[in-house]
Amino acid sequence: MSTETTKPNDNKRKTVLAGITLAFVAAGAAYAVYYESVLSKVQETDNAYVGGNLVNLSSQVTGNVTEIRADETQMVQAGAPLIQLDAADADIALAQADAKLGAAVRQQRQRYADVAQYDATITLRKLQLKNAEDDLARRKPLAADHTVSGEEVEHARQAVDDARAAIAVAIKQEEAAKAGVNGVSVAQHPAVQAAKADYVQAWLASRRNTILAPVSGYVAKRSVQIGARATPGTSLMAIVPLDQLWVDANFKESELKNIRVGQAAKVEADMYGSKVEFHGRVVGLSAGTGSAFSLLPAQNASGNWIKVVQRLPVRIALDPKELKDHPLRIGLSTTVSVDISKTDGPVLGAAMPQTPVYTTQALTQPLQQAATAADVIIAKNL
């Protein structure tokens, strides 16, 4: 009785074990098929972060900050005034440039008048020479019969020589005066144009006391404070255009074999989780690993060398519409999956485009307005 009961149990156990084994084999086969058809055609990494343009705002002139019109997290538009500097020094410099331009015009007017004066002087000297020559001609016959002394004749002859020398001096003075003014009008004289350029420079410096936003975006970092001394080149605040973001995926060097420019990519940001998926494409592979550009690059020629797997940044461009619907931030963590099923694309990035990649018109100054203001000053002093 006991033996008969044991046999059905053994058979049942064998059946269960066979089923489990078959299930494992089937799962392994399914995974092999899935890996071959899906996973082997996708390269994935979670060492990927959002990048973007961090536009540092700085002053072009020196001055004390009197107004700050935007703060961190706030949206600003390109061309909007963000920081105001004390304009007292700039206003004084502009007034001085105004006065110097007027003085330059008047000085050149005097030089043009000197030319006419030297011309009149030459005419006068020629008349004096004619009178001296006539006087000498009258005295010569009288000296023959001793009506006048020989000394008087010598004085008359000396007067003629003096008159001729005076004409030569006047001619040289006229030539020197003409050399400085010939060929140009007062307004176009180099000295006036130099003073005009100084005025335009002062005019621009006066306008630059109002610091404008070069791009539209969000203020990410404000370092400037009221009353601080702003100097050219010093960062005052940073602006991030959230429509100009990308992802830098750091793949291991062993994972780069089949990655090509133009391949499709999917991006999941930890900020939104797996429910939001961004779509992009590979636009290029960095020209060097992260360690190659570090402050202290690795010294691989040293005796205690240890091989470390390197990672290379791969730039992923994102869909602008998806970015607008789900804004990202610089530095956020992401997971990137690149479709490597097609490997016919280039390994190196494309050549630079013919048009600028980024541009702004917000900082363009109306030079024509400055030139017109200078021309008004010139006209007033002519």
| Helix/strand/pairing category | alpha+beta
**What is the distance, rounded to the nearest whole angstrom, between the alpha carbons of the first and last residues?**
135 Å
Shape field:
elongated
Summarize the amount of helix as a percent range.
40-55%
As a whole number of angstroms, the C-alpha radius of gyration is: 44 Å
Structure characterization notes:
This protein has 382 residues and is α+β, with helices and mostly antiparallel strands. Among the domains are: 68 residues, RNA polymerase II/Efflux pump adaptor protein, barrel-sandwich hybrid domain (OB fold (Dihydrolipoamide Acetyltransferase, E2P), Beta Barrel); 107 residues. 42% of the residues lie in helices and 21% in strands. The protein has six helices and 14 strands. The protein has a six-stranded antiparallel beta barrel with strand order 1-10-13-12-11-14. A four-stranded antiparallel sheet has the order 2-9-7-4, with no helix packed on it. Strands 6-5-3-8 form a four-stranded antiparallel sheet, with no helix packed on it. A hairpin with an 8-residue loop joins strand 11 and strand 12. Helix 2 packs antiparallel against helix 4, helix 2 packs parallel to helix 6 and helix 4 crosses helix 6. The longest helix is centred in the N-terminal third of the chain and has 57 residues. It is elongated and about 180 Å long. The termini are far apart. The relative contact order is 0.17. The model has no long low-confidence stretch (mean pLDDT 87). InterPro entries: AaeA-lik-b-barrel (IPR058634), EmrA/FarA_HH (IPR058633), MFP (IPR050739). One of its GO terms (biological process) is bile acid and bile salt transport. It is found in: Cell inner membrane. It is a single-pass membrane protein. It holds the Pfam family HH_EMRA.
